[in-house]
Structure to design on (87 residues):
C-alpha cells in the first residue's frame, strides 16, 4: 500500500508477524506508519508500508452546507416534544 495516501486520523489494519492489528494513524514518516492500536494490549505501534493491509479514511461532515440549513434541521416542532402519558 502507498503510505502517501494515509493521513493522521485514518484507520488502518496492519499484519505484523502474522497478527492483525487495527489502529489509528498518528504519523507517517519515511514509509513507516506510526499508529495507536485500538486494542491497547497490542505490542506494535508502527508498521512498514507492506504490512498495511487495510485502510479506512476518516471523513467529517460536509462543509459546503449553509448555517440556515443546519438551523432549520435542528428546529423541532413543539408537538413532537410533548409526551402524552395515558393513565
Amino acid at each position: 500500500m502507498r503510505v502517501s495516501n494515509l493521513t493522521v486520523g485514518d484507520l488502518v489494519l496492519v499484519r505484523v508477524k502474522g497478527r492483525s492489528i487495527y489502529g489509528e494513524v498518528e504519523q507517517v514518516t519515511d514509509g513507516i506508519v506510526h499508529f495507536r492500536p485500538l486494542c491497547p494490549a497490542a505490542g506494535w505501534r508502527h508498521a512498514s508500508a507492506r504490512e498495511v493491509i487495510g485502510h479506512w479514511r476518516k471523513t467529517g461532515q460536509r462543509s459546503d452546507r449553509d448555517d440556515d440549513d443546519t438551523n432549520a434541521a435542528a428546529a423541532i416542532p413543539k408537538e413532537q416534544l410533548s409526551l402524552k402519558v395515558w393513565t
About this structure: The mean pLDDT is 82.
